[in-house]
Specification:
Number of strands: 3
Helix content: 55-70%
Shape: globular
Radius of gyration: 15 Å
Strand content: 5-15%
Number of domains: 1
Structural class: mainly alpha
Strand order of the largest sheet: 1-3-2
Oligomer: single chain
Amino acid sequence: MTSNDSPQIQALFAFVQKTPMLYGYKMLLLLVMLQVGKGGGFSLEETVGVFDRFYRRREELGLLPEKQRGTKQAQLARKDLPSTIKNGPAPRFQGFLSLSADKTHFEIQEDVWKAITPEDSAALCNLAIQRLATHFGGEKQLIEALVQYAFEDATDEKQGTSTTQ
């Protein structure tokens, strides 16, 4: 948990610990929020890029991109990701995160991003990675490497030096 006594941060930790994991979307969105949204917001396009790189890298490594849930398939094609993100994990972050009126970026609730400490952010990132490892039935180190890959490429693309094809 956290030593932060902010009710919003306590609620965020509880959400991350207890939310059902049908897909890895919520934990990926949390990681984007924590790593990209430092100024209180981040773009949908940045989020799509991170999701796309994470799932494509899983495929490149011969892993299933996402767990199969009955007959319902995860919508992971890049063209489907904006809708998947806006309609899947984003609404579950109500009270922590909202989609802008023009639906092009996410806004972290001010009381959340002002209250979160670097220690809270690190603990939440670690918890999200652990939840992803459990979800995919893999090792935490593999998930850490996949997440690092997804975010490194995001930084490279912003600087115009993408290594993806």
